[in-house]
User: What shape does this take?
Amino acid sequence: MTTLALQRAEPLGSASTAQAFRTAQGGLIERRRTLDFTFDGKRLTGCHGDTLASALLANGVRLVGRSFKYHRPRGILTAGSEEPNALVELRSGARREPNTRATMAELYEGLEAASQNRWPSLAVDALSVNALLAPVFAAGFYYKTFMWPASLWEKLYEPMIRRAAGLGRAADAPDPDIYDRAHAHCDVLVIGGGPAGLSAALAAGRSGARVILVDEDFVTGGRLLAERREIGGESGAAWAARAVAELQSLPEVRILSRTTLFGVYDHGSYGAVERVSDHVAVPAAHAPRQRLWRIVAKRAVLAAGALERPHVFGGNDRPGVMLAGAVRTYLNRYGVLPGRRVAVFTSSDDGWRTVADVLAAGGTVPAVIDTRASVPPQLRRMAEAAGARVVVGGYVAGTKGHLGLTAIQVVDGYDSTETIACDCLAMANGWNPVVHLDSHLSRRPVWNEAIHAFVPGPLPSGMRAVGAAAGLFSLSGCLESGARAGAEAATDCGFAASAEPAPATDPESEGHIPLWRVPRPKGKAFADFQNDVAATDVELAHREGFRAVELLKRYTTLGMATDQGKTSNLAGLSIMAELTGQSIPSVGTTVFRPPFTPVAIGAFAGHHRGKDFRATRYVPSHAWAEENGGVFVETGLWLRPAYFPKAGETDWLETVVREVETVRARVGVCDVTTLGKIDIQGRDALAFIERVCANPFATLPVGKARYAVLLREDGFVLDDGTIARLAETHYVMTASTANAAKVMQHLEFCRQWLWPELDVQLASVSEQWAQYAVAGPRARDTLRRVIDPGFDIGNEAFPFLACADVTVGGGIPARLFRISFSGELAYELAVPAAYGDAAWRALMQAGLPYGITAYGSEALSVMRIEKGHAAGAEINGQTTARDLGLGGMLAKKKDYVGRLMKERPALTDPDRPMLVGFRPVEPGARLRAGAHFLALGAAPSLEADEGVMTSVAYSPSLKSWIGIGLIRRGPERHGERVRAYDPVRDADVEVEICSPVFVDPKEEKLRV
Amino acid sequence: MSEPATTPTPAFLWRPRGAWEGIAKIGGHGASADAPGIRLTLREGQGLATIVAADGREADLRAILAERFGLSVPEAGATAFDGERGLVWSAPGQWLAVSPTRQGFDALPAALQGVAAVTDQSDGRALVRVSGPKARTLLAKGVAIDLHPRAFGPGRAAVTSIAHIGVQFWQRDAGPTYDIAVARSFAGSFWGWLEHAAAEFGYEVA
Assistant: This one.
């Protein structure tokens, strides 16, 4: 028998013993539907309904991975989402997914899994020598071992540690699958599909309430699928199947299976991830791989169950040592014997259930070791009748076996040790309610001395905890509390619900006295399997003063990484409590935060990947720009044409120079649709404009436009633009591209909150109108060929700053504004956006005889710098109108937003940097935006800093780099020379201060 | 100064470009092309206008719209339609007027002079009608609003966002059929979301 057990302890069962550990019958698997899969390249067979873990166990594979730090052989500890050890890489290529819990991976045909963190192979791992260096790798080794010399950290220590210690490898290629997001709403959200959750969902659902049941498993039923229990005379699994069928028949009930509720958020909202296609090799065409749910519920019933606790004893991490509940799951649900000889190590009555289940499945039980001083006699009789050696008041001190368990070392109540051969050890040390979710809103669980476990403390608003999640471990307690809470939750939502009496269950006993760690372990006794934290590491943390739970966690890494200590936290805490002589509740717990289990970043991103990371706004001339080789630039959400290279042009500057020169000599057209456009109407429209603008508008006649400057409440400039008076009580205002939304928000705030008494109506018309700047000496000639005959746009009829309704294309309504950002004779033509594409093409065609060019945001920027117009780099939230040279235009005789605050002493300090122009003293020298100004010969220092260059351009008009910037008392210093010092780009250029208006300072071109 | 002869550009150039042009592809797409779960009807050429009531003139607005245009003004969060012509609530004192043709509301500004500000938005929004057996499921992917018939039925309207893009949508019938309006410059990105979300159900674009 022992020899056989040893053979089975080999990491991979031979093909001839395919599914040698599958029981003869039983379980919820479909034995005739076999599935082929591979593990580390070896072909194996499982059944439909298996997890990867159950299929591996069915094939006798017990060694599944290597541990994080010591590379110790590890197997399968659990049968659920709390698994710390059996982490594998699933799939291959672009779909390779590290750290997948084999216990959660539903088996599918062709599944590829690989063990991780081993080299060269799982059975022979060279780095397991780390285990020999355990003293070096003990708690805090990061902090102590590699302190000196610090310069070696990034080059040597960290790469070395990363190779030696770690988990799986992420895929190298982009994820080929799609991820979806969705919202759901319900009256009652039930979290968990075990007996308590099903009872709650039934009670609530039968009332007609909208119910969502979320269950992480692919078969709903929770532990009813894993235990041999009876409800109302039928098996628990049969009862669960009937409950699910009834729920599915209720139109307002939705069951989300394969879905993990990972987070609880404010106001009854919850995050969940549905593994839509994780159970198939490749998602069906167009099907998402996973779906992220945001669920909003009026009430929630937390029925998340409980997690079983391991014992802390020597070699408790050896493959073959499993939680007793997991052993029963593999036996009863999957029809798999986790071992032929299953010893039981228990501190509770329910551990003894394992004995009967192993026997029923055809295995043997060599021993039952109960740590308690006495056990109910009927349990003892049952085990002894089966031939088990029963040790009461003893414990398992250590384990034996190279890559898997072959024997345990048992210490009995008289301190004598014996070795008992077995290939599986089931440990039962009581259960911890899943208190994670109810703790997400900064709530702490409370200790329940009667069940020796943390239970939910004050619950989030609208949430009820039931069943094992509330510390009610008995099946009858689950059914009863679930039904009651489900009915109450539905009643809260206005439905007439009542809990029917819970059906009878078979008898059960719940006795339990936990043993937090065995007195004298033989070998390393792990508290945290995933992070290789042993009981001795907790002792070390204690000795070195890291005793608070938060420090214990960070110093030892207890409870970190993908499992977040689901099976380990209490073990660590209880040892620290013992060492400090405190109770477990006074040691406390660390904070549970979302997510409950890891969620792929792709699920959060959903559709927002690549170019869809955020929305893109396209201008009306986009199609033409694409057809004509436009090069685009992202400005905020907008994708704007930056410049339009022609054949033979070799770099962007050549193109931009050509565009600028063409505009200045002939004509150009630029899409300025991105500007914000706000329609202002109402009896008090003028009064409103007078109050929001810092310059006067009372004298603006109908048919004219004016430059407008808006201040913030605090006196700094908010934005600038133009306001055109279309009719007596009808204006249209433009705002800069970057500030369009902010200005609209500001105006709405002023209208709704500051002056609700004014009759003003605002509407954004930014999207309604396509708007094009037509600039250059031949702008009027070009426009004449586009605007319908009958509109006089001659210089006298339509002078600088005129505006009018016109028509184009034979009656299409349009607006024409004679305004200029370039300093040339210029217009802006607005047409309904549907005609934007047509109008652009019409302008390009109309301008052909004059040599028209399309120009983009680069040329636009060059020309505004040549004209010294402030833009985003200057209107940066830190400048006043006076700083920008706009002080003279501010109204003296009216009140407006920001009027008083702009007079604060610091804002009127004559020493403030003010806007001027700069040109290099040495012809051809390149200027850099961001350079700071220093007096000639001054050493660079904060004190010597006189200001900053805000915008620069190569000016085709001046054949030189030029800049505008803010320098202390700038306007008084024309002709003075300073240094433009830019240590970031290693530039130090002598520049001369000049007027910011480099081109046409007398503004003659505007008015011809 | 001598002016060159003006030559109007040819009329063929002045074709309106639909908001979905170059974005939406007519036909069947995604899974189950033979029995699509989603039907997307592109709405082009409609008339849209924002109506903002003047201070204290809402009663007059209601009277004029009823008498002259046969339109009733919906309450907050609601629509009032007569066939394909009607009003959709947008904000307190604000509505979106919807008409099947661009000329549908030509008479509005004059009729409402002093009573409400009317701004043409016919080209400012891209409109799509969503119907089919999976219409509600599809929309629930995008909006955080409860669309269950107990919470949101025919005649209801909302202003919200889908995929970080501002939208206004309203339910036309119990099918359910929804109309979604999105700012024109966002139409491309919005369609990208729509295709992504509808693909698993199969969708037909008409």
